[in-house]
Amino acid sequence: WELHEKLDVMNERTWERIRTGTRPAKSAIPGVKEGRDPNNEVDRDAFLYWIKYADFYQWPHIIHFNSWKDLRRKLEETDWEVVSDEMLGFVKRAIDKTSQEWTRILGQTDNYAPLAQHEEAPTSDLATYLSEFMKSAHIW
């Protein structure tokens, strides 16, 4: 909270903040109940409650630090190549899992035509197609 409050390090946490540049005290959309509004950028309790659901607290291999001293130590001691490889492996597995699930879902629909029937599709396997797309987009 202190970094957010003093240094404004979480300035892209809400769409309202991105859109207006100001720290909102509530959701712009009506209907959010009183209490821990997820778009409240000025209330400490609301911020601390919702920030724990941020991507960087959910995904594996993200390096967290608790103080400037801890950050300095981790910057000096972390094998960043290993961290990068582990992150990339996670992303690849997530994409493979998602591709397999969408292949299964689309395979159950009447209107689904396998990608191989389309001239622009490089393979008959959605997972392979997505993997090739990711490579062509230089994601890996």
Q: What can you see in these coordinates?
A:
With about 140 residues, this protein is mainly α. Helix 6 crosses helix 7. The protein is flat. The mean pLDDT is about 80.
Attribute tags:
single chain; 140 residues; mainly alpha; 7 helices; flat
Short description:
52% of the residues lie in helices and 0% in strands. It has helices at 2-7, 15-20, 44-51, 55-58, 68-77, 80-107, 126-136. The mean pLDDT is 81.
DSSP strand count? 0
Largest sheet, described in full? none
Instruction: Assign a percent range to the helix content.
Output: 40-55%
Q: Low-confidence parts lasting 5 or more residues at pLDDT below 50?
A: none
The number of helical elements comes to: 7
Q: Please identify the structural class as seen in this structure.
A: mainly alpha
* Averaged pLDDT: 81
Order of helices and strands: HHHHHHH
Question: How does the SSE layout of this entry go?
Answer:
Blueprint lengths: L1 H6 L7 H6 L23 H8 L3 H4 L9 H10 L2 H28 L18 H11 L4
Helix pairs in contact: 6-7
